[in-house]
Amino acid sequence: RDRLARAVLTNAADSAIPERPRTGGEIAALRDRFEDDPHRPQFHLSTPANWLNDPNGVVQWNGRYHVFYQYNPGGPYHDTIHWGHAVSDDLLHWEDEPVALAPSPDGPDRDGCWSGCAVDDDGAATLVYTGGRGRDQLPCLATADDPSLRRWEKATDNPIIEAPPTEPDLLSTEEWNGEFRDHCVWQEGETWYQLIGSGLADGGGVVLLYESPDLREWEYRGPILSGDRDTPQETVWECPELLDLGEKQLLHVSNYEDVVYFLGQFDGATFEPERRGTLDRGDYYAPQSLRADDGRLLTWGWVPEARDVSAQWDAGWSGTMSLPRELSLGDDGRLRQRPARELTELRGDCESRESVTLDDGESIRLDTDGRSFELATRLSLVDADAVEVTLLGTATENERTTLRYTRDDVLEVDRSRSSRDPRATSDSQHVPVTPYDEPLDLRVFVDGSVVELFANERHCLTSRVYPAGDDATGVDLATVGGRARLPTVEAWELASIW
Ligand code: FRU
Fold first, then answer.
1. 3-state DSSP call for residue 184?
2. Across-strand partners of 375?
3. What are the DSSP E strand ranges found in 134-179?
4. What whole-number distance in Å separates Cα of residue 95 and Cα of residue 51?
5. 179: Cβ below 6 Å to ligand 1?
6. Domains in the chain: ranges and CATH
7. Distance (Å, rounded) from C-alpha 222 to C-alpha 264?
8. Is 114 in the pocket of ligand 1 (CB under 6 A)?
9. What spacing in Å lies between the alpha carbon of 464 and ligand 1's midpoint?
């Protein structure tokens, strides 16, 4: 909310937008500036420089993967949002592309090209995104001019919906005529459907449904689901997305705090939730998915910074993407999230141990090199109270990040000592795991300042940490209050995706 409010204020003040880099060489030069920054991720998608938030328009087009994203070329803060662009043939190696969308000074997207999606309109790649202008947030459309999806032509009759619906009574504020943004568009038969995120005047986020024969003329159909009006943070649901998981549909929304998901049934008019959850309990927001040519659902989320704006300003870049995740429905009817299978191909040198038993107070150290690695292990507590995995520890600064798996069925990322820089957050993050989650299969991806954790392919927790010491490598495994068993421990160095 603050980001969007700021966007309007700063835009009104005629902010100077630096020239956008256009060529691959200019973009590569931007990225090279951060080569020696130890907090910079190597195998998570990032912007060449400056600000990144939501993934947008993710699509596999003519076989290539495209990830667009909310991008401010002017600096590492949220303002004058453009669409950045990266491409990959294999989901492993990525290249920066020039900016794909920029605000048009006289258009309904004058103050920002906010989040949206990409669809295939009978062979024409088409974007539906939110244009921000003054107090308005309204849907706009653009079509690709070339098969590489570099050049986009905006529809001359943007916005494609003139105003938010009057029913139900939607939230409007001093800054906004109506919270009405972010788009999930799909086609069934000849009919296009569109979801837009909003909030109700008397509280609770809401997802609105529209229908169209041609992506240009839209008819309002009503809300498909609204949130709990008594949950204070749920004033608006941003970035709604509806995904078909076969027997069930998954609807997720971002509510300023978390990405909440519902598993249930969509009947074409309303969504009947059967189960509710949180996609990731950590620094993860506004995800978006594509249906790959091989049928997989691949999802990326925005991994925001967990350090203050002055630290982001000093760094010169802000925000990164999560790893691509495969979403599916398990046989137990629950959601599964696993790192895209391709990622094992980034693995290099490996240190591995087998049949490790740790007695009370005992620890083992893995000498992983560098700050880009994957740790895979299986943990059983036996009679221990907890197993602790210490990451990114520095001897010089006495910093460390501790993953703690406890008998209380909680996985914790303890950041109280992650960084001696007071500008970095020190809150701990938690994800509840259930008793039948023993043993716990853990895959932990450590990448500069990102710790992205998958437990039993069900629980995800992504954390940002910023050790100040440059000797922040190595992994320690230890138990507290009893014995623990680790049938395997493996740590691989992971290669850069750039
Ligand atoms: C979510 C969000 C969207 C909006 C975009 C603006 O992070 O606030 O609702 O379209 O970011 O950058």
1. strand
2. 444, 491
3. 136-144, 152-154
4. 17
5. no
6. 2-339 (2.115.10.20), 347-494 (2.60.120.560)
7. 18
8. yes
9. 20
Enter the tokens of residue 494.
Answer: 């992971």
What is the whole-number distance in angstroms between the Cα of residue 128 and the centre of ligand 1? Answer: 14
Cβ–ligand 1 distance for 326 under 6 Å, the answer no
Q: Which of 260, 303, 298 is nearest to 285 (CA)?
A: 303
Atom of ligand 1 nearest to the CA of 3: 8
Here the tokens at position 208 are 């609105």
ipTM: 0.98
Number of Cβ within a 10 Å radius of residue 16: 6
Q: Which protein residue's CA is at the shortest distance from atom 12 of ligand 1?
A: 114
List residues with catalytic annotation.
54
Distance 242 CA to ligand 1 centre (A): 17
Ligand 1 centroid distance, CA of 283 (Å): 15
Is the minimum distance from the CB of 299 to ligand 1 under 6 angstroms?
no
Measured in angstroms, how far is the CA atom of residue 163 from the centroid of ligand 1?
A: 18
Residue 129 amino acid letter: Y
Residues in the chain: 498
DSSP category for residue 346 = G
Please check whether residue 320 is in contact with residue 83, taking contact to mean a CB–CB distance below 8 angstroms: no
Question: Over the stretch 109-168, which tens digit does the pLDDT of each residue have?
Answer: 999 999 999 999 999 999 999 999 999 999 999 999 999 999 999 999 999 999 999 999
Element (H, E) at 268: none
DSSP 8-state class, residue 344: G
Structure tokens at 314: 């000093």
Measured distance CA(58)–CA(74) in Å, rounded: 23
Q: Dmax of the chain from CA atoms?
A: 70
Spatial CB neighbours of 453, under 8 Å, sequence gap ≥ 6: 282, 403, 411, 413, 442, 443, 444, 445, 460, 461, 462, 463
- Give per-residue pLDDT as tens, 256-307: 999 999 999 999 999 999 999 999 999 999 999 999 999 999 999 999 999 9
Under 8 Å between Cβ of 306 and 276: no
Q: 3 in helix, strand or coil?
A: helix
**E strands in 189-284:** 191-199, 205-212, 219-226, 238-244, 249-254, 259-266, 271-278
Query: Whose Cα sits closest to atom 9 in ligand 1?
Result: 238
How many helices and strands in the chain, by DSSP H and E? 3, 34
Cα separation, 262 vs 291, whole angstroms: 19
Q: Which of 81, 113, 115 to mutate to test the pocket of ligand 1 (most atoms within 8 A of CB)?
A: 115
